[in-house]
Design goal:
The structure is a single chain. By secondary structure, the protein is of the alpha/beta class. It folds into two domains: about 1-190 and about 360-455, Zn peptidases (Aminopeptidase, 3-Layer(aba) Sandwich); about 190-245 and about 290-355, 2-Layer Sandwich (Alpha-Beta Plaits). About 35% of the residues lie in helices and about 20% in strands. The chain contains 14 helices and 21 strands. A hairpin with a 2-residue loop joins β4 (about 100-105) and β5. The longest helix is centred in the first third of the chain and has 22 residues, at about 110-135. It is globular, with a radius of gyration of 23 Å. The two termini are about 25 Å apart.
């Protein structure tokens, strides 16, 4: 593919400008800021590839759906999203979050790692392939979500409107990162999630704190309720929570053992003395990838400003996410949570369900997984870090798993991309390499049937 890679190198400034253009458009889904403009911008980039494009309405933000159908044997789909997280706190950014400036070989922008860098790398790969060869090796579909950062609750609306969306042989999923030693991370699944808000109420107005002697404090009610959910050994105390958890199988255990997880580097990078329960090695990796969680994401009540204000708050709320693994049904978990609170005397605590997703996994021996794993080693010169599941979450079950469609994730970020944080960034050369690797995956996936021995001449994971 020398001719193609040369073309990408010669035109890298153009592809970098495309990425900067995408990142300069705010598209904050939680605030409905710039969503319409960004969806149209994505549609225009896809139209530039001669794709047939639809902006598909959903119950929240639209999906941009594009297809390039050239009567090829295989169809490869890309799942990405064009929405981003809020840029707050702005004062912690070294560079303006929507200026897409390049400094020391890194492009800084909100959403550049999650997920515009990966989206534009895939668009650029299609463009380069078309320019060099005139046609693509596979049919291509793009599913570009507008509400991934708010839970993708209405993703299925797009499938109901355009059923052909799921007629595909596999998805390249949204994102991925390089490890500190330069290996690419290949992820074969995602954890599920239940996201809820717990609400406690007291009087119908905030009161002087002297009234706390005789009037219920909802902040205390909420803290007491939260303390029942998990013990100091990190085990969730909700009865039945672990009942249907599917443990890793033999191949997944082998993959787990072979993951080179840079735990010391991560500790140093994050300023930590150690990990929970002093876990190390395979036990640490198993907990990260295959065990569910219960996490308090935020608590709000009363006065939290400068100085003092003697107040008895009237309301308290906490946002909680449960990262779930295969076998756990988020709808069942919310019912168990309700029963748990009631059984512990907290029937006054309200539960607001915000979002839910089931976990999803792709078989490591699936053809698409094998192509990505094998070609990643060849292209990057290192064995990839293969994860059976990412600890993160997305709508992979809705779009892929429930229809038995494989989904494999890789991308252009690195371990210090700071997704969802100030100074989000990617390395520019990772982006250029990512464009080339997408081209390679498309070509090799189209030829899989003719080259099976290349992928199955030895163990799938080595």
């Amino acid at each position: 593919m020398e001719k193609l890679f040369k073309y990408i190198d010669e035109n890298q400034d153009m592809y970098i400008e495309w990425l900067q253009d995408a990142c300069r458009q705010p598209s904050v889904s939680t605030q409905n800021r710039g969503i319409t403009e960004m969806s149209q911008k994505v549609a225009n980039y896809l139209k530039n590839l001669n794709a047939k494009v639809q902006i598909v309405p959903t119950g929240r933000h639209p999906v941009v759906y594009g297809k390039i159908m050239e009567d090829k044997k295989k169809t490869l789909s890309f799942y990405n999203h064009y929405d981003v997280q809020p840029e707050d706190p702005i004062e912690l950014w070294n560079y303006p979050p929507f200026a897409a400036e390049i400094h020391d070989g890194k492009l800084f922008a909100r959403g550049v790692a999650d997920n515009k860098g990966n989206l534009m790398a895939r668009i650029a790969a299609i463009h380069a392939y078309q320019q060099v060869y005139g046609e693509l090796p596979v049919n291509i579909k793009f599913f570009v979500d507008g509400e991934e950062e708010t839970g993708s609750q209405y993703t299925h609306d797009a499938i109901e409107s355009v059923p052909e969306i799921i007629e595909t042989d596999g998805y390249i999923w949204e994102s991925g990162y390089k490890t500190p030693d330069g290996a690419i991370s290949v992820r074969l699944g995602l954890k599920g999630m239940l996201y809820v808000e717990l609400q406690a109420e007291g009087a119908n107005t905030d009161l002087h704190s002297s009234n706390a002697a005789i009037i219920k404090n909802p902040a205390w009610r909420l803290v007491w309720a939260l303390s029942t959910l998990k013990d100091v050994n990190e085990r969730v105390n909700i009865k039945g929570f672990y009942d249907n958890v599917e443990p890793p199988n033999e191949l997944e255990e082998k993959i787990l053992e072979n993951i080179l997880y840079h735990e010391d580097h991560m500790k140093e990078n994050l300023g930590l003395d150690g990990y929970l329960l002093n876990l190390k090695g395979t036990d640490l990796k198993r907990k990260l990838i295959f065990q569910p969680t219960c996490t308090i994401c935020g608590i709000v009540s009363g006065y939290t400003g400068e100085g003092s204000k003697t107040v008895l708050p009237s309301k308290a709320k906490a946002k909680i996410d449960f990262r779930l693994v295969p076998g756990q049904d988020p709808s069942r978990i919310v019912r168990l949570l309700r029963k748990h609170l009631d059984d512990h005397g907290f029937n006054d605590i309200k539960i607001l369900k915000i979002s839910e997703k089931k976990a999803a996994k792709t078989n490591p021996n699936d053809p698409l997984a094998q192509v990505v794993i094998k070609e990643a080693e060849e292209f990057y010169g290192k064995k990839p870090q293969v994860l059976s599941m990412s600890p993160g979450t997305g709508p992979m079950y809705k779009l892929a798993k429930q229809y038995n469609i494989p989904a494999v994730s890789f991308g252009v970020g690195y371990e210090n991309s700071k997704i969802h944080a100030p100074n989000e960034n990617i390395r520019v050369m990772d982006y250029i390499e990512g464009i080339k690797f997408v081209c390679k995956v498309m070509k090799e996936f189209s030829e899989f049937e003719d080259n099976k021995e290349k992928y199955f001449d030895k163990e799938a994971i080595h």
